[in-house]
Amino acid sequence: MSMTRIFDSRKSWALPYAIFAALFVVLPLILILVYAFTDEQGAFTLANFQKFMSHPEAINTFVYSIGIAAANTIICILVGYPAAYILAMTHMRHAATVVTLFILPMWVNILVRTLATVALFDFADIPLGEGALLFGMAYNFIPFMIYPIYNTLQKMDRSYIEAAEDLGASPLQQFVKVVLPLSMPGVASGILMVFMPTISTFAISELLTMNNIKLFGTTIQENVNNSMWNYGAALSLIMLFLIGASMLFASPDSDSQEGGIR
Fold first, then answer.
1. Cβ neighbours of residue 43 under 8 Å, at least 6 residues apart?
2. Facing residues of 227 across strands?
3. Tens-digit pLDDT profile for residues 138-165
4. 260: phi > 0 → left, psi -120 to 50 → alpha, else beta; which?
C-alpha cells in the first residue's frame, strides 16, 4: 500500500489517537489491575483488598473523602446553577465574556491557584482547615459546574417557556416545571466533572489543611511514594470503581435531551 493511500484513508488518521490511548490509558489501567491482584512476588492474591478492609483508618479516609467530594459538589451546584441561569436566561450583555472570566482561572495551574488561596487565607488571618479545604475546592472546580449548565440552558428551546407562560404558569412554575427538568443533563455533567476530580485530589487538601486532613488520594500517593505499589494499586482500583459508579448519575441519552424535549 502506497503512502498516498494510507493518508487518504480516514481510518489512518485515527492511528495516532489509538496509539496514545493504548500507551497512556489502556496500559496504565492494565498495570493497576495486575498490581492490585498480585503481591510483591507477582503471585495472585486478594490480600491488598483485605488489608484495606481491615484498616479502619483507610476506610474512614475513604468515607470522609466521599463526604468532602459530595459537599463540594453541592456547594458548586448551589453557587454555579444560579450563575449559569442568570447568564443564560436574562439576556445579559456580554454573557459570553463573563463565562470566559469564570473559565479564565483554569488557564492557571491548579497548584498555583491553590497556593494563591493559601496566601489569601494567611493575609486574612483565617486558619486553614476543613473550611479552607471546601473553599479551595469550590474555587477550583466551580467552572466545571457552571459551563455545562450554561451550555445546556443556552441550547434550550425557549418556546417551552413561552408555552408555559401562555398557559398561565408563574415564573416559579416555569422554572420548576420547564427550565429545571431541561437543565438536568447539564447538572448531571457538572456533577461528574466536579465529583470525580474532587474524590481523587490530594494536593489541594495538603496545602489548604497543612496536611492535617488526609483524603483518599493522599493515601494512594503515600503508598506509591513508599514503593507499596500493590496496595496503592488496589486503592486506586477501589477509587476507579467509585468514579465509575458516580457516572451512573449521567443519563445515557443526555446528549439527545440537551436543548429541549425530543
1. none
2. none
3. 999 999 999 999 999 989 988 998 899 8
4. left
Report the amino acid identity of residue 62.
Answer: F
Angle subtended by helix axes 95-103 and 130-155, to nearest 10: 140
Cell triple for 246: 458516580
Q: How many CA atoms, within 13 angstroms, populate the side-chain half-sphere of residue 49?
A: 11
pTM, 2 dp:
0.84
d(CA 73, CA 142): 9
State percent of the chain over pLDDT 70.
Answer: 90
The three cell numbers locating residue 190: 457538572
| pLDDT at site 29 | 92
Q: Report the candidate in 119, 165, 162 with the shortest Cα–Cα distance to residue 139.
A: 119
Cell reading at 158: 425557549
pLDDT given for residue 261 in this prediction: 42
